[in-house]
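Re: tetradecanoyl-COA structure - here you go.
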Amino acid sequence: VESSTTKDDTSLETIVRRFQESMSDSKTHKFWETQPVGQFKDIGDTSLPEGPIEPATPLSEVKQDPYNLPSVYEWTTCDMASDDICSEVYNLLRSNYVEDDENMFRFNYSKEFLSGVPARIRVRDEVVKMAEINFLCVHKKLRSKRLAPVMIKEVTRRVHLENIWQAAYTAGVVLPTPITTCQYWHRSLNPKKLIDVGFSRLGARMTMSRTIKLYKLPEALVTPGFRKMELLDVPAVTRLLRNYLSQFGVATDFDENDVEHWLLPREDVVDSYLVESPETHDVTDFCSFYTLPSTILGNPNYTTLKAAYSYYNVATQTSFLQLMNDALIVSKQKGFDVFNALDVMHNESFLKELKFGPGDGQLHYYLYNYRLRSALKPSELGLVLL
Ligand code: MYA
C-alpha cells in the first residue's frame, strides 16, 4: 500500500508501529533462537567469521523420517504437475497468504509460480547452492499453534537430504536477523482505480484530474531497438546480467538455464524486454517485471489489483531512467494498475524521478545457515525473490 505518511509523521498509529519495530529485536524468538541464523545478540560482533554457521553433515546423519505433526495431520508432497493438487495449493494461498497491514489486499500468485527449483546465490566471492523458501502458509484457522516451526524444520530436513545446507528467504516480519531491509516503491499507472480501492490516497492539494495527468505516460516507447526478449537472446541476456550482478555483495548467480527459466517471457508470469542496438545488433540493455495480482478484499466494485513487480534490470547504453520509463509504458499498455519496485541494486536512481512513491511495508531478506559479518545496504543486494 502506498504510504500516506511522511518521514516526520507522528500519528499515534505510526508511533506505536515504530515502537513495536524497535522492540522486535528484543522480543524472544523461541524457535529462531534454536536455528543456525544470525542472532540479534551477535549484531556488531565482527569477530564471528563469515560463512556457514553449521557445517554440512553426511547425509546418513540427517534425520531420515519426517517430524511429528499433531495426530490429525499428515505430510503430503505436492505433485505440482497434477492440476488438482496445484489447484488445491493455489486455493490455500489465494485465501490465506500474505495480506497488507490493513487487510485490504491479499497476494494472488498464479499457479505458474508455485514450483521450486534450486538456486545458486553468490555471497561475496562464494557461490553457494541454496533453497529459496517461499509460500510458507498456515490456514487462517490454524494460526499461532506453532505449526510454522514444524514446517520450517521439515522443509529444512528435506533440503538437507538434497545435500543443500543454506537457504534464502524474504518476509515482511522481523526475524533474527535480516541481511538487509528493503522498501517497496509504487508507481501508479491507473491512479483512479488505486485511489478508489484504497491503495493510494489523493495527495494534498491534488484533484483526481490533476493526479491522472501527473501519472500519464506517453503512448509510444522511446528507446529505438526496445523489444521483447526471445529464446535466442538467452546467451546475450545472461552475459549482461552476470556482468551487472557481479558488483553486488549478495546476488543471484544466473546461468543460461536460469535465465531461460526465470526471465524468458511467459504470459501473465514474467515480461522481459531488451534493447538491441539498431547498428551493431548487440543487446545493450535489459528490463523485466513479474505479474503478481492481489485480491482486493471487500470492495464492491473491484476484485483484482493488477501489479507488475520490477525484477532484474540492466542499463549499459540507454539511460536507466529512459529504460525504466519504457518498462512503465509497456506495463501500462498491458493493463497493469501499478508498477512496484524495491530499492535494491541501482533502482534508487530512477524511483523518485519516475514518480514512484514509498510504500508502507518493508521487506526483510534472510539467509539460513550463513553469516554475514555486517548487514548490507539494499543497493548492495542483487537478488529479487518472487
Ligand atoms: S514469507 C511469507 C509468510 N507467509 C505469510 O505471511 C502468509 C500469512 N501468514 C501465515 O500463513 C502464518 O502467519 C505463518 C506463520 C505461516 C507465516 N517466516 O505457527 P506459528 C515464526 C519465518 O505459531 P503462525 C515466506 O514465505 C515466528 O517468528 N518464520 O505462527 C518465507 C515464530 O517463531 P519465534 C516466521 O502465524 C518463509 C513462529 O513462526 C514467519 O501460525 C521463510 C510462530 O509459529 C515467517 N514469515 O504461522 C521460512 N512468520 O517464536 C523460513 C512467523 O522463534 C525458511 N514466523 O519468533 C528457513 C530456511 C529453511 C530451509 C533451510 C535449508 C537449509
